[in-house]
Amino acid sequence: MRALQPLLHDVMICVAAPAFAASPRDGQLRGASADGFYDHDRRLLHTLCLLIDGREPEPIGVRALGPDRVRFTSVHRYPSDRTDDPTLIVERVRTAGDGETVSLRNVGTVTRSLHLQLSFATDLADIADVKQGLTGRALPPSVEDADDDGGPALTWRSATGLARVHAAEYAAEPVVAEGSHGGTFTWSRVTLRPGCSWRIRLAVTGCAVPAPPGHPIAASPRVPWSEPLIRGDRRLIGLVRRGLADLRALRLADGSRSEDGQRGSADDQFIAAGCPWYLTLFGRDSIWSARMLLPLGTELARGTLWTLARRQGTVHHKAREEAPGRILHELRPTASRHGHGLRLPSRYYGSVDATPLFVSLLVDAWRWGLPDADVDALLPYAERAMQWIVATSDADEDGLLRYFPSPGGLVHQSWKDSADAVRDAAGRRIEPPLALCEVQGYAYEAATGLADLLVSRKETQQAQTLRDWARGLRARFTDAFWIDTADGPALRYVAIAVGRDLAPVSGPASNMGQLLSTGILDRDGCADVAAWLASPELNSGWGLRSRSAAVPGFNPLSYHGGSVWTHDTAIAVQGLCATGRHTEAAALADGLLEAAVHFSYRMPELYGGDARTDTSPAPLAYPAACRPQGWSAASGVAVLAALLGLRPDTPRRTLRLRPLAPSLLGALSASGLRLAGADLSVRVDVSGRTTVTGLPDGWGLDVEGVDVG
What we know:
Strand content: 25-35%
Number of strands: 38
């Protein structure tokens, strides 16, 4: 029987990238599912069980103390007691990247004599195996006696990993024992008088073996964005606040050196894709997180761009799907088998969208005020990326940016990358080679944006060449992607993709929402797409469905066949606001914000696409969804910027504002934004009057639709 991917809906995850811990709600790690302490994709410990007098404590509560810590509370009861009240309280505080503290407190009136045992075991498994539901053979540990550097310890070694748990602080030294399947710390007699406590702190450490060269490292304590103060919709405030806290825990940094000598540092920060499955550098995901956070400064974008630039493709390599100019998709400590025939090398370039998104991140960062020295240094990498885009498109018989996956690699190479991500209106799987609609939009946006940047550098001829190419792509897109329909909110929609011979893939999907901000659609096209995004087929009431609910094969809990993706909805809100479709934007934003309430503002990677009604239950997270997840956590800032209508233009030194009318979602203000190094505040009051303070010297405002204070 095939092993199944572990479900995460009831798992407590604490993260301090590159480390995390995944725990059941009672705190006992039993070696099942995804249980364990992890670091750099390696499971260091999968069993950590506490027994008191031979029994497990009874759980009564669990609470996250921050993104990196969680507290489990249990009680230990005695049948002989004359009271039903618990008298022995057990608290375990688990901290990602550190270990665990176990505390016992006697709140009764009787002295207790306790027998305590902590059991430990591990398989030192790779996260890819854990994701497939595989548990390896438990490894035998070795015992280390207490010394000047710390208490007694257990150590596990394998060909691929090393793990160690030691008693860092303790009231009494344990007896340590080893076995073929694990080890124990035991205290045969712990006397605990009324009102007294007992405590031990366990340090859990380890690493992959050998240490992966050039792999991301822990970020410096300094966070590369500002902390905004928001007033307005309480749901938006909660979403931004919780999202930024999670993003702090998902930060990684680049300590590598590229072939041309560029060295990273702990301040070259980026956002890991998500925990637990993708706690590493993912080109597409890290780029989107950085784009969404640009209103809070350009430093994260800078770190993300340099991290990816140092790994930009330089040669043609079939297994890695590397090509000169191509931007990395995924970085792992080692090659991994992911099931279903998927085997990826540690450095893998198999995405069609990361490369144009890299170019657009540099352009957007330039518009938000990235210093000229960084723009000029990164520009050659963007030009090489654009050369890959143009060459790949020109080599296609239809002149589109299409992907041709290699055997063993990802079948679909966009953000919808599951094996059944592309289906037609009849529910049939459509196989590559495919040209996806949003990817053509990304390529168009990259070309036109880079052309603007080149004009600012007096490279007018190269800029004109790019604009001519983009104009041709837009014409080809318009001819190939629109599908006429007799039913629906508009008489046409954009196909999710076109295959060979320009055959469009039928069936409305959310992908078209990501086109709105790219410029590839004309005014009428934006209106038609907006109508579809607002329709009940795609708008679940909790956010944007990945696939229409009106077509066969719709599944509200399918990874890409009907679920709602947080970032996808936020990008659609951005596009709707940017193209003046404020009513549709407000409807989608309201659904996303209402869903956020039910998830305690920690938005999962994706969640169920069931319709929201007056009596419907709260939305359900996809059972194996990452949470926290990078672009989901960043989506609150993206929605904030969209509702305020912020569109900066550094070369013209102008801030364009098109805020949402307060009649739609209420008054809104934000201070602590960052523009060209200056602190910016924007306020839209209940009457629609807009006040902007803190504009950089020499900057002006371009505001429509509201009064300006």
